[in-house]
Write the C-alpha cells for this entry.
Amino acid sequence: MLGFAELRAMIAGIDDVAYFQTSGFSPKPAPVLDDAIHWMRFQARGPALPAIADACATLVEQTRADVAAAINASPDDVMLNENATVGINIVANGIAWRPGDVVLLSDHEHPGNRVVWYEIARRHDVQLRFLPLDGADDAQLLRAAASALQAPVRIVSLSHVSRRSGRVIPAPSLSRLCAQAGVPLLLDGAQAFGAIPVDVAALGCDFYVLSGHKYILGPQATGALYVRHDRLDWLRPSWLGSRSQQTMDQHGGLVLQPSARRFEFGTRNIGDIAGFRRALHMIDAIGWPAWFAAIAERVATTIAALAPLPGVVIETPMLAEQRGGMVCLRVAGLTGSEVYHALLERAHILVSPFEPGTATVRVSLHGFTTDHEIERLASAIAALSPASITT
Ligand SMILES: Cc1ncc(COP(=O)(O)O)c(C=O)c1O
C-alpha cells in the first residue's frame, strides 16, 4: 500500500510552488522517472538485439493491457500514443467525409478538440455545431443534443469533463442518444482519466482519448486512443507504417492488424511507455477508489474554502457527482491572467488561466495536495482585488 504523503515525498520540488496545475501537466513521482530511465538505459545497450527488442515489445503490450484495464477496455481496442490530441486526429482524419456532414462539439472544448475539426470543416465542406454547456443543466443539454442530432451529424466529439468549468457531462445518456441516431461519440477524456473513474463500456462511447501526463502522473507525451471494436474498420487510417500490418507482400497486398494496434507504427520512446506503466502501478498501489476519493475530497475542500470569499465566483458544479478534479473560478474585476500572475509571483501558487481575455482560472487538485496549500490558496485569493493588482 502507498499513501498520498509518501507519494508527495516522491515528487521532487513539490514544496517549491503550490502546484494546482495537474490538469495541464502533472509533476512526476521519482519511480515514474526511474522506470523511464531504467528502460531507456536497458534499451540503449542494443535496441536491435533480440533479447532487448523482445523485452521492450513485451513492455509495450503490458502497458497496453494496463491502460485497457484502467478504462475497462480490451487491449485490442487500445492504441498507445503521445497525447489525447493524437487520438482525436486519428478519428477526425479517419472519417470518409461527405459535403454537408455535421460535427457536433460543445462550446467548452479545448483547442485539441477543435482545431482539427475546424480544418476538417474547411477541407471537406463540413459544418460545425456547438452544444451550449454554459447555463444548460443535464436535461437541457440532452434536449439540445437530441435536437442537434436531427441534422446529418457524422460524429459527436465532447469532453468527458469540461476544462472550461470542470463539469462532468452526462456521457452515458448522450451515448444512448448518439447510438439511437447511429452517430458515433468520441469522448475527450483528457480531464477525466485519472481524476474520475472511466469505464468505456459503461460510458458506451465509440472512441475515447486520454492523456497520461495529467492526473495519472505519467511522463509528458503519453496517452491512448480507445476504438470500440465495431468502429475499427469504420475509421480509415491515414498514417500507417511498420507494425500497422498483420501481413503484407511485395505486390501491394496488405492486411492491417485486426486491432487498434494498426494505428501504431515506427520507432517510439520506450522510456515514456515504461513511465506510463509505472504511474498506473502507483495508482494500483494506492488503490483506484482511494485515488479518486482523495481527488474528490480535495475538490470539495477547495470549494468550501473559496466559495465564501467575497468576489469569488465558483463556476464548477456544486453537485459532487458532476465534478472532476478541478475547480474553475473567477475573481470579480480581474482577468484570469491577472489572477494567475498575482498568485504565482506573489504567493508561489500555480493555477492555470483559461484563455486570454477571459476571467476564469482553473485550480486542479490531487491526492497529494495538502490542507496547507488549499489554505494558502484561499488566503492569496482573498487578498486579490483590482486595487491590489495595480499596486
Ligand atoms: C479537455 C482537453 N482536451 C485535450 C487536451 C490536450 O491534451 P493532450 O496534450 O494530451 O493532447 C487538454 C489539455 O489540457 C484538455 O484539457
